[in-house]
Specification:
single chain; alpha/beta; seven-stranded mixed sheet; globular; binds pyridoxal-5'-phosphate
């Protein structure tokens, strides 16, 4: 088969204002950072970029967790990373479902032969802690998982009570922060979150392609004491961390220019300040709601949850 390369034009999508939940508009500084020369994944300069990215990520997640890295892949890769590293066949896993992404978590638990305890809430509503307590009474779950901001409806579930329920039951508390990280308070250490993943393309205004994750020491201990090997070679945190940790041992080739982009996005977050950034998102949310209501529309999700 022959093709004429001149049939294909230069990429030029034109300008858009991205109004969906993600990807969101990418500031020029981030696009500029992506055009820096691609260097080797063990180049000392790149190793220093990795260290800085981890420091900036810990600031964003508000955590001291050593295991805080960007997984190569989009938010769903982060989701799989968290479950695949911690769930073994037969483990009881509670998943709170109030939309598409809780449903996706349940699918992953089933594929790993975990014993799924699914707590369903009406779509468009926050997860009710009492329903979760009822569902796990007398059980021995290893993980309690929830989506902080369920993108499919916009429902926000507060984390504090669910974190307590998880810990009282001896479970790890796992949070999806794909749509919340960078846009609203996600304080990993204060909220007692043991495992968390996110994505770059929403409130971080970075292109899609990386999934920031953080594992507490307790979660790392569970990972290190698994009975069976992690079923995914690519997402096995024991091996991935030998590259991100002191050993600097090759596992897979890091997506160099995406990590430049994330570092720049996180630098912008630090420059703006977390509180100012959350306030800006809140203000824009209020402006959107006011505009929609002025058009005679009403919000599906009640305010404040
Ligand atoms: C809450 C939530 N979790 C997970 C994902 C999956 O992320 P991705 O599409 O980047 O793989 C999304 C994507 O929209 C999301 O909104």
């Amino acid at each position: 088969m022959t093709i004429d390369p001149y049939d294909f034009r230069d990429i030029n999508p034109g300008n858009r204002v991205l109004m969906g939940p993600g990807p969101s508009d990418v500031p020029p500084r981030i696009l500029q950072a992506m055009t820096a020369p691609c260097i080797g994944h063990l180049d000392p300069y790149f190793l220093s970029v990795m260290d800085e990215t981890q420091r900036l990520l810990r600031h964003l997640f508000q955590t001291q967790n050593e295991l805080t890295i960007p997984v190569s892949g989009t938010g769903s890769a982060g989701m799989e990373t968290c479950f695949v590293n911690l769930v073994e066949p037969g483990d009881e896993v509670v998943v709170c479902v109030n939309g598409v992404f809780g449903t996706r978590m349940s699918d992953i638990v089933n594929r790993l032969n975990g014993k799924l305890i699914r707590v369903d809430t009406k779509w468009g509503r926050a997860v009710e802690p009492d329903n979760v307590s009822d569902a796990i009474r007398g059980r021995n779950p290893k993980i309690l998982a929830v989506v902080h901001a369920e993108t499919s409806t916009g429902a926000h579930t507060p984390l504090e009570e669910l974190s307590k329920i998880a810990h009282d039951a001896g479970a790890l508390f796992l949070v999806d922060s794909v749509t919340s990280l960078g846009g609203m308070e996600v304080n990993v250490d204060n909220a007692g979150i043991d495992v968390i993943y996110s994505g770059t393309q929403k409130c971080l205004s970075c292109p899609p392609g990386l999934s920031p994750v953080s594992f507490s020491d307790k979660a790392v201990e569970v990972l290190q004491n698994r009975k069976n090997p992690v079923v995914s070679w690519y997402l096995d945190m024991n091996m991935v961390c030998s590259y991100w940790g002191e050993e600097r041992k090759y596992h897979h080739t890091a997506p160099i220019n995406m990590i430049y982009a994330l570092r720049e996005a996180l630098r912008l977050v630090a420059e703006e300040g977390l509180d100012a950034r959350f306030a800006r998102h809140r203000l824009n949310h209020r402006a959107l709601v006011a505009g929609l209501e002025a058009m005679g529309l009403s919000m599906l999700v009640p305010e404040g949850r």
